[in-house]
Amino acid sequence: MKPGTITLEVNGRLRSATAEPRLTLLDFLRYALHLTGTHMGCEHGVCGACTVMFDGSAVRSCLMYAFQAQGHQVTTVEGLCDGDGTPGRIQEAFQEAHGLQCGYCTPGMLISAFALLQSTPDPSDDEIREALGGNLCRCTGYAQIIDAVRLAAVSLKGAGG
Amino acid sequence: MKAAPFEYLVADAIDDVTTGLADFGDEATIIAGGQTLVPLMAMRLARPALLIDVNGIPELQGIDQAAGGVRIKACTRQSDALASPIIAQRVPLLAKALPYVGHAQTRNRGTVGGSIALGDPAAEIPLVATALDARITLQKLASTREIPIRGFYEGPMMTSIEPDECITEILFPPWQEEGRRGTGFQEVSLRHGDFAIVAAAAQVIMGEDGVCRRAAVALGGVAGFPFCLTAAEDALTGTVIDDPAVAAAGAAVDGAVDPQNDLHASAGYRRRVAKVLVERVIREAAQEAAGGAPGDHP
């Protein structure tokens, strides 16, 4: 099938590019829109590195085709920054709490944390563990990631949400 | 790890789906949540010539309750079912099982009908649907049929869906027996969110006299598809669920289960876990019924 034009809202901006139907949303974000913050890990839905917000819910961008995002809203890790690229509060908290080592899983962790804190501004440790349960990290042992999300919750509350 | 090329059709109504399936037959595959299909396509274990996307069909979304029971439209997200007060009140066994289905990120896309249609032997939703005698509505161009889930599965990831049919809804019929309902759900998996090595589900209705009026006990992960342990159900019905009754139900596992060795667990381990989990879900359901609110069951 010939490529078609996909138009969708990414990080608050309307973006368009062409894609074949078999192009995943992940590859579309990285190769067509050059948003390389979203990482490819396993490419079959197990590792969570490619997690993005899709219409307000965290999903795996490797498990969707770009065609399915036509007309929808996507937020990637780039969208968690301020307009000038300054790290947002969740990103700052990960830095502060050493919630990353190699950083490969971090975009997915950040988006999953963002999704959690949107619905649950004051999560318990169990809720944090549950929310990050679909994101694999091979470096940290997770403890500092959980610390980072707890710190982000405090930071966001201090900022009035 | 990239899918083979395919044509892509966005369906706006069920008619678009049934027409596409009638024209393309088994060359076409429906994509709903895609949480199983997309990896299968990436690994080229599936190579459909046409994908029919049903995500934009309003008639395929939602949960409603009627005299006939609770109806879950096929393309309802697993996360929406998990958040549904109707499911929590009327199909609590499903509400108990849904947190075990993948992770939040996959439940946000994955659908109830997709899980039923794919029929993974260890998947939680087919297990609960089997325990509760769910009914599946299948639609094709000229006709619609509603069939019981018993007999729907033919083997691992094999169902009696015809190539030109699509699942439109899953019905959970009410249990009419008077009494208090209790449910139990347990599974053993390598990690939380993985497919179960063994999973068990039970629902009971207990009369005011403490006698079990009706029991459903089902197992997943130990055969090609989930099944009800009718011998265990018979052992429980009409009795007080005490330790000997639980042991009698658990003993039914031995004759009913013939699991296979695979990478994740040996047959012997599966058989042992199946028995333990069956006893646990029966106890869990009986205890919940003993403390639960009367008269509130689907």
Overall description:
The complex is a heterodimer of chains A (161) and B (298). By secondary structure, chain A is of the alpha+beta class. Helix content of chain A is 34%, strand content 16%. Chain A is built from 5 helices and 5 strands; from the N terminus they run E-E-H-E-E-E-H-H-H-H. In chain A, a hairpin with a 2-residue loop joins strand 1 and strand 2. Chain B is an alpha+beta fold and 298 residues long. Chain B folds into 3 domains: 7-53, Uridine Diphospho-n-acetylenolpyruvylglucosamine Reductase, domain 2, CATH 3.30.43; 59-172, Uridine Diphospho-n-acetylenolpyruvylglucosamine Reductase, domain 3 (2-Layer Sandwich), CATH 3.30.465.10; 180-291, CO dehydrogenase flavoprotein, C-terminal domain (Enolase-like, domain 1, 2-Layer Sandwich), CATH 3.30.390.50. Helix content of chain B is 34%, strand content 24%. Chain B has 11 helices and 14 strands. A 5-stranded antiparallel beta sheet of chain B has the order 4-5-10-6-7. In chain B, strands 11-12-13-14 form a 4-stranded antiparallel beta sheet, with helices on both faces. In chain B, helix 9 (230-236) packs antiparallel against helix 10 and helix 10 (243-256) packs antiparallel against helix 11. Chain B is globular and about 60 Å long. The chains are: A alpha+beta (161), B alpha+beta (298). Chain A binds chain B through residues 1, 20-22, 24, 43-45, 48, 51, 54, 57-60, 62-65, 67-68, 70, 112, 115, 130-131, 133-134, and chain B through 1-8, 10, 31, 34-35, 38-39, 41-43, 51, 53, 55, 79, 102-106, 108-109, 192-193.
